[in-house]
Design a protein that fits this description.
mainly alpha
Length: about 110
């Protein structure tokens, strides 16, 4: 038997076993008293989990909004702290540029 045939046989066997197990589980959950209890417990627990998840998502959204506001405040502080030194540096560079232009120009004409 080649590898391809062996692989196909294993796939088919898994498919059949999965279908049988699924049918058995469906029968257990829908037709037996114990299965109905298990199904009800699973449903109740899933509802509790969904409620908890909804609460958690709400808390995360609140924290995210708080974080966003705090980040905006920090950004504004950084802009103020960095803008003043940057502006004074720009003014110094402008003055140096004016002096350089004056150095290279005499009587309104460039030196060349």
């Amino acid at each position: 038997m080649s590898d391809g045939e062996h692989h196909s046989e294993n796939f088919f066997t898994g498919l059949v076993l999965g279908a049988i197990l699924g049918a058995g589980l469906f029968y257990f959950l829908t037709s037996t008293e114990e299965g109905k209890k298990v199904k009800k417990n699973l449903k109740d627990k899933s509802e509790d989990v969904l409620e908890s998840l909804a609460d958690l998502i709400g808390e995360i959204e609140e924290k995210g909004e708080e974080f966003r506001e705090k980040a905006k405040e920090v950004q504004k502080e950084l802009e103020v702290k960095t803008a003043v030194p940057a502006l004074s540096q720009i003014e110094k560079l402008r003055e140096r540029g004016r002096r350089a232009v004056k150095f290279f120009i005499r009587n309104g004409k460039p030196l060349s």
